[in-house]
Give the backbone structure.
Amino acid sequence: DGGITQSPKYLFRKEGQNVTLSCEQNLNHDAMYWYRQDPGQGLRLIYYSQIVNDFQKGDIAEGYSVSREKKESFPLTVTSAQKNPTAFYLCASTKQRAGDEKLFFGSGTQLSVL
Amino acid sequence: GENVEQHPSTLSVQEGDSAVIKCTYSDSASNYFPWYKQELGKRPQLIIDIRSNVGEKKDQRIAVTLNKTAKHFSLHITETQPEDSAVYFCAARPGYALNFGKGTSLLVTP
């Protein structure tokens, strides 16, 4: 679990501002994910990436963007188009191999709107 | 996409009793079903998982059962302890990403 680092732990966004959440892993995992957690809503998938330079939209991708330029890094940008960004954001990764699907989570970033 | 329903949303038991949480899924292609425990302010942690070719799996006080025909799976915790108090999430994986239920808040009272 200590192999996935999210930063910052807390982030505040002003109206009309884009903010970027960092996620780095040193587990040599192929796949990386971003989930959004709201109270009583479980974890909802924003984006995921199986390999470098490739990513797919999840269930709630609108207002978010990602990049995967390095295997270790999968930053999430919350754009001004996301009108309700206040939530707990969790990054995760997995080896994505049959028999080894365990998902490891980072410690999360709490994003709030000023 | 995959739809995972989880019940109940809250569960309160006395220490030593058993707790059961149930989930259903919609996509018959789902082949991997993990359960995560999340304590307040912490990251989710995998506690047990089961694959589609297995009907039941047990790890000490925790067990999971899977009924592929009915598309439901359950988490059973026996001899509950106060430290079992947390939010529990089920998930199903039809493709390359996990879809999670909305969670069950379990409270174990001494």
In short: The radius of gyration of chain B is 13 Å.
